[in-house]
Amino acid sequence: MGHKKHEHHRQMESKNAPYKFNESEYDKARKDEKHHKRMEHLGEMGAAAAGAFAMHEKHQVKKDPEHAERHKIQEKIAAAVAVGAGGYAVHEHHKREESKKMAKEAHGKKHHRHLF
């Protein structure tokens, strides 16, 4: 026969069970801000990489005239990707600023500017 647990052991187990942390609005906003910061940096890196590839393809047009048309097409595609990634980075920057503002409001650090 198996071991039967006493009621007080069951109560202790339920108390020690991993409890869910109820995040405050401030914590949620800070977590969201960090997420948008990472995504903004990824967008910036994507724009830089695509821009570098576009410049490489532009160079290849001159270096490899036999396949110039192909390199021109790839250059244009890379330039479009660079613009899109840059736009995404700007979008994430605005989301990050919005999250930062919400975190300040949730934490009670809304500062008012005084004239004097």
Write a compact overview of the structure shown.
This protein is mainly α. The chain has three helices and no strands. The chain has helices at 7-16, 25-63, 68-107.
Task: Report what the structure shows.
- With 116 residues, this protein is an all-alpha fold.
- Helix content is 77%, strand content 0%.
- The protein is elongated, with a radius of gyration of 27 Å.
- The model has no long low-confidence stretch (mean pLDDT 83).
Give a topology summary:
Blueprint: H1 7-16, H2 25-63, H3 68-107
Helix pairs in contact: 2-3
Measured as a percent range, the helix fraction is over 70%
Secondary-structure-based class equals mainly alpha
Radius of gyration: 27 Å
How large is the share of residues in beta strands?
A: under 5%
User: How many strand segments?
Assistant: 0
Features:
mainly alpha, 0% strand, 116 residues
